[in-house]
Specification:
Kinesin; alpha+beta; ten-stranded mixed sheet; 19 strands; three-stranded antiparallel sheet; 18 helices; 812 residues
């Protein structure tokens, strides 16, 4: 078998010096390694240090150190386990590798030839890996150029960010100009409001002037009225002498009149008071009345004077109105001037904006041009320096390449041919690996055939709390001799010892995983195109269902059926790179009271037994000429993953017939048959296989005296015992090699006919209960298993064919 690190380069054992310049030998080795790489790499120079030179020398010694199977191969195998360092090949190394001939001490030793071939393939892969590393150097240079391009793009993005900042600054200036324009608009609105307020005040003044004119008119009317009253007063004064008695009434009316005058004219209030005093004393002195008359005359003069003053005020108001009109005209002219000024300012703002934008654009363009010129000057100066350096290097390379161009071209073509040759050899090696896988399958199945077509495993379940504790050692014992270890079991009954030997015996502490490991190779045979049958036999409560199905919800206690499905789907995935594609079909049924029930049917009326007086479907078992079994009208489901099958198993478990007896709390009352049909095709080899995996959980045998079954349980027990008895008859007939085997005596034996008497690989689990009360039934189960182990059936036949017409490639 090849090492796991066969694709890794060997590690040089020679240490690298700390200071290469101190040793002149390393410089010469360095020059040699540079020349070698120049010859292989197509003229491209490559910096090589002393460590690489040492590695090159060691690689050369590893490749040319010896043939396959010699001492050089052992050194290469020891160095191939490390990942440090690199390998470089020269033309001579590759030619030596291709021209190397395999040497074997014994030409019939296939293992030695296989090891030599694997070692040779490993070294070919090392050579190819070196070419791939050389190609990786060019890819790294390409990556550096991409990084430079990304740096330039980032600089461009920074320049765009700067331009965006300039645009933001211009936008802020424009916003300030807009604010100034808004303030001018507010000032203009305020002046308009002031003008409106002045017009309102002028209107109020006009109204006041009109009210003054009305007051003047009322005063003139009051003066006329006063003159008339004075005349009447004079007449009354003349008649006062004659009418003294009526003087008091006249005095009262005069007081009322005076109070009225006081309310209408503020300037005549004092005069009215004096008149009232004079009226009070009119009886005493008439002269006082004359004085009152004189005072009234004075009041009249004053009224005339006030009237003249009012006229003057009216003239002044007229003059003021004229002045106000002149001011209003001035305000209007001022408003017009301001409007014109606002218009001119707006035009100037627009012009300023245009000029500002133009100036900023010119400034930005000048800044950009300046920056571009500076960057261009800097880049050009750097470019000039770089180009000068590159020119010097290119001149040196040109001088070197002119000398070796033709040789390099020739070597490149030769290396290309070598690579094609290596690829062809790699393809041939892969084909040989496929042929080896076919041979492995053939040897694997040959080993299983040598072990026996019907194999029997015995499993003893642990003691349960309901069992008699501490009695296991008295019932069962397990011999520890070299031949019997793990294969023999002894049972003690009434002091008598009964010994049995099977292919494998699992003690009570055996785990589900340990049990599955023993049958995993048998499950693999189903993928290889064989018919495989595994069934569990034993009394009620002996652990058959636990062995086949396990405990739901506990991954560590999964049974054989879910573990087998997981292995099949995992192996199917691993075979896909080799060109294999598989299709899986699942069916599940139970045999209940000698009738077949479809556990995957969606219609619960599709049952072969009579329920509530209605007869369901009648399922018929048929065997074709190739030994394949078919059940008519049975539901078959295509599956693609173990999860889908687990879901179907849960569905079938809910539909299966179970019942309670005195021996088992939840006893299976029917035979459960799980069938997985496998169809595979290899697209590369056009090979086809058809395999079948039958996993069967038989109902438990029980004695009526112990189970206490009555009614329906009694009928179920009788049917179960009858079918198991028919199975015993078939096994006895096969063991005695009788001409007639009674397969048709029960549905169970007829269904298992290809597995028991055909070309199938069959394994039986006999499950035993350690309870001392079940010793008799356990002895019967062990005896039956021993008879099954002694049976010989036909040779298993692989179901394969080829798509092509060449029959020599098909397997029987």
């Amino acid at each position: 078998m090849a090492s796991k690190n066969q694709n890794k380069p060997p590690v040089p054992n020679t240490p690298t010096p700390a200071n290469p310049s101190s040793n002149s030998n390393y410089s010469s080795v360095d020059e040699v390694s540079v020349e070698k790489r120049r010859n292989i790499g197509g003229g491209v120079p490559k910096m090589v240090g002393p460590a690489n030179a040492v590695r090159t020398r060691q690689a050369f010694s590893v490749v040319n150190g010896g043939g396959v199977g010699g001492g050089g191969g052992q050194d290469l195998a020891s160095n191939a386990s490390s990942e440090c360092g690199g390998i470089e090949f020269t033309k001579e190394d590759v030619e030596a590798l291709l021209n190397e001939k395999m040497k074997a001490k014994n030409k019939f030793n296939l293992k030695e030839k296989c090891d030599q071939m694997m070692e040779y393939i490993r070294r070919l892969r090392l050579c190819i890996k070196w070419f791939q590393e050389l190609e990786g150097n060019y890819l790294s240079e390409q990556q550096k150029l991409r990084n430079l391009l990304e740096l330039a793009e980032r600089k461009c993005a920074d320049m765009e960010m700067l331009i965006k900042a300039k645009e933001d600054e211009l936008n802020s200036i424009i916003m300030e100009l807009r604010k100034n324009y808004a303030s001018l608009q507010e000032k203009f609105t305020k002046e308009e409001l002031d003008k409106l307020a002045a017009i309102d005040s002028l209107t109020r003044e006009k109204e006041a002037r009109a009210a003054a004119e009305k007051l003047q008119a009322s005063l003139s009317e009051e003066l006329v009225r006063t003159q008339r009253e004075n005349t009447n007063a004079m007449q009354k004064i003349a008649s006062l002498n004659d009418m003294y008695k009526r003087l008091q009434e006249y005095n009262t009316s005069l007081q009322q009149y005076n109070s009225k005058l006081q309310s209408e004219l503020a300037t005549t209030n004092e005069t009215l008071k004096r008149v009232e005093k004079e009226k009070a004393a009119v009886v005493e002195n008439l002269s006082s009345l004359r004085g009152h008359y004189n005072s009234l005359q004075d009041q009249l003069c004053s009224s005339r004077a006030s009237q003249d003053q009012a006229m003057k005020q009216n003239e002044a108001l007229v003059t003021e109105v004229g002045c106000l009109r002149g001011d209003l005209q001035l305000v209007r002219d001022d408003r017009d001037r301001q409007l014109l000024q606002v218009e001119t300012l707006t035009a100037e703002v627009v012009k300023y904006k245009e000029s500002t934008g133009r100036y900023f654009a010119e400034l930005d363009s000048l800044a950009i041009k300046s920056n571009d010129l500076e960057a261009r000057c800097l880049s050009q100066s750097n470019l000039i320096k770089t180009l000068q350096g590159q020119l010097a290097i290119a001149e040196k390379k040109l001088q070197m390449s002119d000398m070796s161009a033709l040789a390099t071209r020739t070597e490149f073509e030769e290396q290309k041919n070598i690579i094609l040759d290596l690829q062809g050899r790699l393809t041939d090696a892969e084909l040989k690996i496929i042929e080896g896988e076919k041979q492995r399958k053939k040897l694997h199945n040959t080993i299983l055939e040598l072990k026996g077509n019907i194999r029997v495993f015995c499993r003893v379940r642990p003691l349960l709390p309901d069992d008699s504790a501490g009695m296991e050692a008295k019932v069962f014992s397990y011999p520890t001799t070299t031949e019997a270890l793990g294969r023999a079991i002894d049972l003690m009954q009434n002091g008598q010892k009964h010994s049995f030997t099977f292919d494998k015996v699992f003690m009570p502490d055996a785990l589900q995983e340990d049990v599955f490991v023993e049958i995993s190779q048998l499950v693999q045979s189903a993928l290889d195109g064989y018919k495989v049958c595994i069934f569990a036999y034993g009394q009620t409560g002996s652990g058959k269902t636990y062995t086949m199905m396990g405990r739901p919800g506990s991954p560590d206690q999964k049974g054989l059926i879910p573990r087998s499905l997981e292995q099949i789907f995992q192996t199917m995935q691993s075979l896909q790179p080799q060109g294999w594609k598989y299709e899986m079909q699942v069916s599940m049924l139970e045999i209940y009271n000698e009738t077949i029930r479809d556990l995957l049917s969606t219609n619960r009326s599709d049952v072969s037994r009579t329920e509530n007086g209605v007869v369901g479907k009648q399922f018929a078992i048929k065997h074709d000429a190739n030994g394949n079994t078919h059940v008519s009208d049975l539901t078959i489901v295509d599956v693609h993953s173990s999860k889908e099958v687990s879901f179907l198993l849960d569905q079938a478990a809910q539909s299966r017939s179970v019942g309670r007896t005195q021996m088992n709390e939840q006893s299976s009352r029917s035979h459960f048959v799980f069938t997985l049909r496998i169809s595979g095709v290899n697209e590369s080899t056009e090979q086809q296989v058809q395999g079948v995996l039958n996993l069967i959980d038989l109902a438990g045998s029980e004695r009526l005296s112990k189970s206490g079954s009555t009614g329906d349980r009694l009928k179920e027990t009788q049917a179960i015992n009858k079918s198991l008895s028919s199975l015993s008859d078939v096994i006895f007939a096969l063991a005695k090699k009788e001409d007639h085997v009674p397969f048709r005596n029960s549905k169970l034996t007829y269904l298992l006919q290809p597995c028991l008497g055909g070309d199938s690989k069959t394994l039986m689990f006999v499950n035993i209960s350690p309870d001392p009360s079940s010793v008799g039934e356990s002895l019967c189960s062990l005896r039956f298993a021993a008879r099954v182990n002694a049976c010989e059936i036909g040779i298993p036949r692989r179901q394969t064919n080829m798509r092509s017409s060449d029959s020599r490639l098909s397997c029987g």
